[in-house]
């Protein structure tokens, strides 16, 4: 049972209008946003930040951003965000082979060196204590420019917020996210856990 009950999608009309963004991303408005709207300034600020972070300004694709989010969420253990991130990666065109083998991104041939550098950056930046070092920096600069690195860290930081929000809230997970979690992550033990 969640710490705080989500409100109706009609509770705050400005949030509802902004949240239409998630219909493309996930196919539904996440319960996390429906909980945030108990303080509409938070829900609106979060949605606008999400839109800014997920905008494509360079070569970091929408699919890669969602895989970066998955690695970050996997590192922190947030099952809610793991399922959301893999679902969004699928909806934004990640290759089937990447979705099926996200756990093995470091060695699987479906991932190239630039993607591995980005995903390793996500893992290192999501650890406590932070593990971003000169080796991570060198690998990033072999493939990405500074603006693209800022985009990636924007995703990692956004999901740091979401991982803490959803794990602390015990946010109820939506059926579509459960389906994606089971399909792509279940073979490695993913389950909804406290997000019932």
From TrEMBL:
Every Carboxymuconolactone decarboxylase-like domain range: 40-120
MF terms in GO: peroxiredoxin activity
PANTHER family: CARBOXYMUCONOLACTONE DECARBOXYLASE-LIKE DOMAIN-CONTAINING PROTEIN, SI:CH211-175M2.5
UniProt protein name: Fusion protein
């Amino acid at each position: 049972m969640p710490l705080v009950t989500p409100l109706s999608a009609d509770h705050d009309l400005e949030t509802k209008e902004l949240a239409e963004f998630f219909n493309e991303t996930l196919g539904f408005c996440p319960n996390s946003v429906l909980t945030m709207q108990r303080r509409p300034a938070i829900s609106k600020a979060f949605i606008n930040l999400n839109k800014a972070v997920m905008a494509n300004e360079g070569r970091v694709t929408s699919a890669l951003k969602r895989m970066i989010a998955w690695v970050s969420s996997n590192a922190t253990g947030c099952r809610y965000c793991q399922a959301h991130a893999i679902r969004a990666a699928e909806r934004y065109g990640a290759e089937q082979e990447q979705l099926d083998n996200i756990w093995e991104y470091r060695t699987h041939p479906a991932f190239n060196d630039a993607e591995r550098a980005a995903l390793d950056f996500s893992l290192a930046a999501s650890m406590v204590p932070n593990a971003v070092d000169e080796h991570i920096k060198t690998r990033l600069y072999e493939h990405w420019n500074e603006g693209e690195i800022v985009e990636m860290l924007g995703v990692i930081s956004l999901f740091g917020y979401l991982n803490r929000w959803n794990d602390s809230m015990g946010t109820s997970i939506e059926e579509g996210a459960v389906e994606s979690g089971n399909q792509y992550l279940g073979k490695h033990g993913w389950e909804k856990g406290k997000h019932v």
